[in-house]
């Protein structure tokens, strides 16, 4: 029983770490896009398609992995 608790706790902790990493990635992506817009003398609103694509590429994988880890931990806990 103790081993089961360790396993689902591991998945819950991993999902929290992935969410934290997603926040860090979001912050650094915003900084890079801001620098890009300053270098090319444009705004994020003018480049909304590129900005949206970049933010989604940074956020979606971490969100999917975190959700998957949380789901696995939840299934192990309730099994």
TrEMBL record:
Q: Membrane-crossing residues?
A: 7-27, 47-76
**Does Transmembrane appear among the keywords?**
yes
Kindly provide the name given to this protein in its UniProt entry: Uncharacterized protein
| Keyword Transmembrane in record | yes
User: Which organism is this entry from?
Assistant: Longicatena caecimuris
Alphabetically list the UniProt keywords: Membrane, Transmembrane, Transmembrane helix
